[in-house]
Amino acid sequence: MGVDSMLRGTMRVNELGHLEIGGRDCVDLVKEFGTPLYVMDETLIRENCKRYKNAFAQSYPTETRVCYAGKAFLTLAMCRLIEEEGLHLDVASGGELFTALQAKFPSERIYMHGNFKTDEELTIAVRHKIGRIVVDCMEELERLNSIAEKNGAVADIMLRLTPGVEAHTHEYIRTGQIDTKFGFHIENGVALEAVKKALSLKHLRLHGFHCHIGSQIFEIEPYRIAIEQMFSFAEIVRSETGFVMRELNLGGGLGVRYTPEDDPPTIETFVASICETVREIASRFGFDPPILAVEPGRSIVGEAGTTLYTIGVVKEIPKVRTYVSVDGGMSDNPRPALYGARYFAVIANKASQEPNKIVTVAGKHCESDILIRDIPLADPQPGDILAVFTTGAYHYSMASNYNRFPRPAVVFVKDGKAKLVVRRETYDELLRCDHKLD
Ligand code: LLP
Predict the structure, then answer these.
(1) What SS3 class is residue 8?
(2) What's the gap in Å between 297 CA and the centre of ligand 1?
């Protein structure tokens, strides 16, 4: 399995044998914007948004909300795109909320998350009347209530629950006692207590429940278990308090392809399965189908992103391995170091050549900084451009200035045009917060 199986969206190999994205030759993009460069296929991002919306429209009888998880990738341009596509937006910090508000994203379509939201963050959320605050713990209920009271408001909330299933890629665990800092645990009775408390506080309006079971998930079964748990909890709540769950938010998690071996379900399969499960379980428990929300991040932007690097050094250690060093690394992609994540790549200016050499791609940070171990590439040489696939989610958003690397630029490509949405940081900007020396 080679590069062909990794081409997606508007990607193709053009007549020059170069990788092209959004109608732009990657070699030309590098001439114009330099490397490392995050290239985002705008058409593919929009298509993924539409696929989510259409799949829900086909499979669910009442309102659905696709809340893009901004933590995956958020800039002003991305907020605008999400607004234009009619999605909601999940923010997880004051900075993400600030970005959305600066982009004039409709505040009623924002969901706010966090296991510790500061008073400042909650105050901004309340003053801007954001759509939903997803409350994570007992202390936050009290604090949000008094902030809302001070601001003469009633905050619209959901409660984040811990449904006893946690999933990642091919594995999931089912347990009543998940060890997590997030949410109210259902098993130990805290979630029920939280509902009672929320209903008793005058400046909070409870709409329903939220859960998020993991990320880069390839299986539907853990969602089924979570949905079952959410409804069986909602039934207890209804009988104990009379509160009827009108909204259910199942969080994010659908996986993407980082390498040719990855085989996640399609957006359509995922959405159809959860809709069917929610409908079936709701009716079994005697609920009308609630407003159904999901919070996809990776599956909207992950495969739409490609990072372009310049190869600088090719070092062959006979009988050991060949290191190919590129001009970025763990500052623009911390995922291999953090999670042991695996990637696939191609030499953009030799995309039609058969890969003939197994090499290890190293970043240029001052530690081992391996981006891809043992990947076949077509005769890598200094000056070649390496394109690493599936870097749209949790790359720019997790980039750092380690070793005082300026963060790369981000371009959106579409219909032969490249739009700079984040320009490259400069060396001067690395000093912008340093106190000047006398
Ligand atoms: N909703 C909530 C409450 C979340 O915590 C997350 C992700 C999402 C939605 C979006 O999940 P997605 O659809 O993107 O899987 N930095 C890690 C991923 C951390 C995900 C954290 N929460 C990585 O690079 O793999």
Answers:
(1) coil
(2) 6
